[in-house]
Write a structure and sequence with these properties.
It is built from 2 helices and 43 strands. It is mostly beta strands and 652 residues long. It has a 5-stranded mixed beta sheet, with no helix packed on it.
Length: 652
């Protein structure tokens, strides 16, 4: 999924890193952050309280590192210095969250370099460059959300690659590196690398790769894929694959689309649709429950996003959380959040695991956080909702050949965190001209509430396909029974237009319709729907009630507007929670990291970042000192400040 609100052209430059000798890391400890979401279950919770409500105001920068992948603007560098030919600043997104084990941080850069840093000083220990083809245009640009760690406890203590870093790449490789030295683990796959394009049909170069770190559970490395949206019906399969963490041998594959009669979900497709449809891939991080030996897969929409006439039916297991046996890939349960998706309503976030306390019991749970702003709390063992979910009627399609689902599943608790209805009289503008423009445009769009299908005349998509919740996901604290998430409320429009019979030009090839879409913005460049456009929201887990709800950040260019702080900002990235009673979040367009009281939402501290913080922070403790770290490199699609920084904060 791409968001195109602001663009700036540039290329990317890779800087060399000098190794710094240092002792290797030990095994993960409770104070560590060894996985993308803190743990295999993606809780984004740290049991650390050295930094707390009472002293967080004293936080200061402890160190700053630079990763070396700094975009530049080719208009000011006409000789195109650096490695990029076709790559542009609009493709640069530093969305990574570092992981940490003992005295080292591990992070991936937008150009898929893996870098190990001293966790106390930020000094570079080693870096590994997979040498991407930077002249190759890529559907999702250049982005990597992180790497994964695994320790082979059966290997000798001094064995090379006993401790491993797994690096996924946008050109569809899975690379295993020695965590101590950064050298390839040559007994993994083919000399350290597994080719993820193997046996993938309809492969189009630059459209198939991995942008999120794999999940490692019980000796298996399990990975999804990122696939370019809306190109055609017959696209790459969205299969999930599991590899032996030591050897790289393929152990199992799971296709979210059932291809044969008798497979689970087959009755929600036609035979022809199940045979040819691509996508439904899991592009965000997966999560796992090692004790139950389960992996939880968040899937996206089947291809293409905005016309489903070639894929009649509910289309399981697209737009679902699916639990699989981590050892075999065998299906255990599913919960589908959108039937027959026509809106690009992927499940965009890692399914976070937690324990829900209710009526004196602790219930193993997970949450499906969605672009609609709906949160579905599910029993981790069965997939059954923990609050009632109602199938409610939704608008029918008026596009010839399309049959939209007559109902969609609405959670009763928590209530939707994104508005699900709007009218032309609600059109917003910063001045009278903008309001008039937005209202006039809104009156031309079809809109009958959430899940209004795309149309030939044009449909308002609200909630928009950016979220609600996006890849930043949620943070959950099972002790305080609190969930926190960022919510985006930006409208979009989509329009279908008939293609010439047999034409294979444009998008949605294999259907009768082209598609066009864009953010629904005023002449001033602001959303045409009322603010706040970005929020930070806390939910009480046992009841589903909202504990607090506040605007997050300030939109770029509005820093001097008096009311802008109450309008919030489009935000990419998620929050974390600590035992110190704190929520840390950046994500907004104003290059700021903030700390909030987890119980009240009170803003307790904030600090400027040297570039956009479109990432999820993390925290850890080394040598008795707690650090809070965030990647600050910006997100060119959002127009935030670009850079190549990793910034650590600590108490003096």
């Amino acid at each position: 999924m791409r968001i195109s609100l602001a663009f700036a052209a540039c290329a990317l430059v890779v800087a060399a890193c000098k190794p710094v000798p240092q002792a290797p890391p030990g095994p993960p400890a409770p104070a560590d952050w060894p996985a993308y979401g803190a743990d295999a279950g993606g809780s984004r919770y740290a049991p650390l309280d050295q930094i707390n409500r009472e002293n967080v105001s004293q936080l200061t920068v402890a160190w700053t590192a630079k990763n070396g992948d700094l975009p530049h603007n080719p208009t000011t560098a006409p000789d195109r210095q650096g490695p990029c030919g076709k790559c542009h600043a609009s493709e640069s997104k530093f969305e990574a969250t570092p992981i940490q084990v003992a005295n080292r941080l591990y992070i991936s850069t937008p150009l898929n370099r893996a870098v190990a840093l001293d966790a106390s000083t930020g000094e570079t220990i080693w870096s590994y460059d997979p040498k991407l083809d930077l002249d190759q245009e890529r559907s999702e640009g250049f982005v990597s959300r992180g790497v994964s760690f695994w320790e082979d406890v059966d290997a000798p203590a001094d064995a090379v690659c006993r401790k491993r870093i797994y690096l996924p790449t946008v050109d569809a490789r899975l690379i295993a590196l020695d965590a101590d030295s950064g050298s390839l683990c040559r007994n993994f796959g083919w000399r350290g690398t597994v080719d993820l394009t193997d046996e993938i049909d309809h492969l189009q170069v630059g459209q198939y790769g991995v942008t999120s770190p794999p999940v490692v559970v019980n000796g298996m490395v399990i990975v999804g894929t990122s696939i370019g949206d809306n190109r055609r019906v017959e696209m790459e399969q969205g299969i999930v694959r599991a590899y032996d963490a030591r050897s790289g041998d393929l152990k199992w594959t799971w296709d979210p689309i059932p291809r044969q009669a008798g497979m689970p979900g087959w009755n929600t497709w036609t035979p022809e649709g199940a045979k040819k449809t691509g996508g439904a891939n899991a592009w965000p991080p997966l999560s796992a429950d090692p004790e139950r030996n389960l992996v939880f897969v968040p899937t996206g929409s089947a291809a293409p996003d905005y016309y489903g006439g070639e894929r009649p039916g509910d289309n399981l297991f697209a737009n679902s959380v699916v639990a699989l046996d981590a050892s075999t890939g065998e299906y255990r349960w599913h919960f589908q959040v959108v039937h027959h998706d026509l809106w690009d309503y992927d499940i965009p976030a890692q399914p976070s695991l937690f324990m829900m306390k209710r009526d004196g019991q602790s219930i193993p749970a997970t949450v499906a956080a969605t672009k609609m702003g709906f949160l579905y709390f599910l029993n981790r063992d069965t997939g059954e909702p923990l609050f009632p979910v109602e199938e409610r009627p939704v608008p029918a399609s008026d596009v010839p050949g399309e049959v939209a689902s007559p109902t969609q599943p609405f959670p009763t608790r928590p209530a939707p965190l994104h508005p699900i209805d709007i009218a032309p009289e609600d059109a917003w503008g910063i001045n009278d001209a903008d309001r008039a423009f937005c209202r006039a445009q809104m009156e031309t769009f079809r809109y009958e509430g959430a899940f209004t299908p795309p149309s030939i005349g044009g449909t308002l998509i609200y909630p928009g396909y950016a979220g609600g919740v996006n890849w930043g996901g949620v943070a959950v604290d099972s002790d305080s029974q609190t969930l926190v998430t960022t919510i985006i409320s930006i409208p979009f429009w989509v329009r279908l237009s008939e293609r010439e019979a047999g034409s294979k030009e444009g998008n949605q090839i294999g259907t009768p319709y082209h598609m066009s879409r864009a953010a629904f913005m005023s002449p001033s460049g602001l959303p045409c729907t009322p603010p706040p456009w970005g929020r930070l929201v806390a939910i009480d887990l046992p009841t589903g009630d909202v504990k607090w709800d506040l605007p997050l950040g300030v939109m770029k260019g509005l820093e001097d507007v008096p009311d802008a702080a109450s309008w919030g900002s489009l935000a990419m990235g998620g929050p974390i929670i600590t035992a110190g009673g704190l929520v840390f979040a950046a994500a907004a367009m104003d290059d700021t990291l903030r700390a909030f009281d987890v119980e009240t939402g009170e803003l307790l501290w904030q600090a400027d970042l040297p570039a956009g913080g479109q990432a999820t922070p993390m925290t850890y403790e080394v040598d008795g000192r707690q650090y809070v770290v965030i990647a600050a490199g910006g997100h060119a699609n959002l127009g935030t400040t670009l850079g190549d920084f990793v910034v650590a904060f600590a108490l003096p």
